[in-house]
């Protein structure tokens, strides 16, 4: 017996059932598409966070760049206490060292910002869930901050006093413009002179550098010398009265000696005259004196030996041989 089953045509099926199945299929596909990156095995990016003192106009979906190349986007910004925590989704395969530095920068003149990550250093690299600490981040200095600070400073200034100062400065410049011109001309000449002496100045600076190095090397000896000088000066200060008394005694002795010489000048002149004559005679007979002194030494030695040997004495006889003479 053969059983024949008939298959209904797709058009013959219930439209309601087909509609429900289609809606469920679309919903499942949409849910899968939005949850694609949440599946660990299928994720194409990993998340890291960075703490900043201020969001500085940063928004979700702003770019994250490394070396100027987009590697991800900002996914969340939260206020945590006194700081802002920025969550970033980084493309897989991007190597960001754990010592990285993050800074919020201006992307366009319209105020669009981005996070610039400076990937300095090497491994280990950041993984999903890692964070960049507050001390390793920076925010841009906004123009409005500078204007606010400038406004506060201007408000603290004394307007009339500043106006008077500007008026006096204008008068001073108008009065001394000729002197100012001469001063500028002098500065110009000075600059030209310095340019002409450039080599000499370089040599002087090099010598000064050598002198500084020498003083640095001899620093201990210089300190010791200064310490010794201090000790000598201290000793002189302690002996000040004695030194002063010695100087006064020397002065008194000089005065007395001058008086003695003055009173006995005639006798001193006679003595000096006789001494001069004696020196002249000695100068004329200097050769004879040299010979006498030459023989006086041995003669004195031999004469002295007579008294040291009792009744015995030494007798020397010289017998010249051929060309040799007696000493």
What layout of secondary structure does this protein have?
Layout: H1 15-34, E1 45-52, E2 63-66, E3 69-80, E4 83-91, E5 101-106, E6 113-118, E7 131-132, E8 137-138, H2 143-156, H3 159-175, H4 177-196, H5 198-217, H6 219-238, H7 240-263, H8 265-284, H9 286-308
Parallel strand pairs: 1-7, 2-6, 5-8
Antiparallel strand pairs: 1-4, 2-3, 3-4, 5-6
Describe this structure as you would to a colleague.
A hairpin with a 2-residue loop joins strand 3 and strand 4. It is built from nine helices and eight strands. Helices cover 54% and strands 15% of the residues. Strands 7-1-4-3-2-6-5-8 form an eight-stranded mixed beta sheet, with no helix packed on it. Among the domains are: 43-146, no CATH class; 246-299. It has 327 residues and is of the alpha/beta class. Residues 1-7 have low confidence and may be disordered. The protein has helices spanning 15-34, 143-156, 159-175, 177-196, 198-217, 219-238, 240-263, 265-284, 286-308, and strands at 45-52, 63-66, 69-80, 83-91, 101-106, 113-118, 131-132, 137-138.
């Amino acid at each position: 017996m053969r059983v024949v089953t008939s298959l209904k045509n797709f058009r013959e099926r219930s439209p309601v059932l087909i509609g429900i199945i289609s809606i469920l299929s679309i919903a499942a596909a949409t849910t899968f598409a939005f949850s694609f990156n949440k599946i660990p095995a299928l994720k194409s990016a990993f998340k890291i966070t960075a703490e900043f003192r201020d969001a500085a106009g940063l928004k979700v979906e702003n770019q994250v760049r490394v070396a100027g190349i987009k590697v991800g986007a900002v996914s969340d910004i939260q206020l945590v206490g006194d700081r802002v925590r920025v969550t970033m989704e980084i493309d897989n395969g991007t190597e960001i060292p754990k010592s990285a530095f993050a800074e919020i920068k201006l992307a366009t003149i319209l105020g669009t910002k981005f996070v610039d990550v400076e990937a300095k250093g090497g491994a280990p690299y950041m993984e999903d869930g890692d964070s960049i600490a507050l001390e390793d981040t920076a925010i841009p200095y906004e123009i409005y901050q500078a204007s606010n600070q400038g406004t506060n400073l201007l408000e603290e200034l004394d307007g009339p006093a500043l106006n008077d100062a500007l008026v006096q400065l204008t008068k001073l410049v108008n009065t001394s413009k000729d002197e100012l011109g001469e001063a500028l001309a002098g500065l110009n000449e000075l600059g030209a002179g310095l340019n002409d002496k450039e080599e000499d100045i370089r040599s002087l600076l090099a010598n000064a550098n050598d002198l500084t190095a020498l003083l640095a090397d001899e620093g201990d000896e210089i300190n010791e010398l200064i310490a010794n000088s201090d000790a000598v000066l201290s000793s002189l200060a302690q002996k000040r009265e004695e030194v002063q008394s010695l100087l006064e005694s020397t002065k008194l002795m000089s005065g007395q000696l001058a008086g003695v010489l003055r009173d006995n000048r005639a006798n001193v002149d006679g003595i000096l005259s006789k001494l001069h004559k004696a020196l002249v005679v000695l100068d004329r007979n200097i050769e004879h004196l040299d010979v006498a002194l030459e023989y006086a030494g041995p003669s004195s030695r031999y004469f002295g030996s007579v008294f040291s040997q009792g009744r015995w004495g030494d007798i020397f006889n010289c017998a010249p041989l051929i060309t040799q003479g007696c000493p």
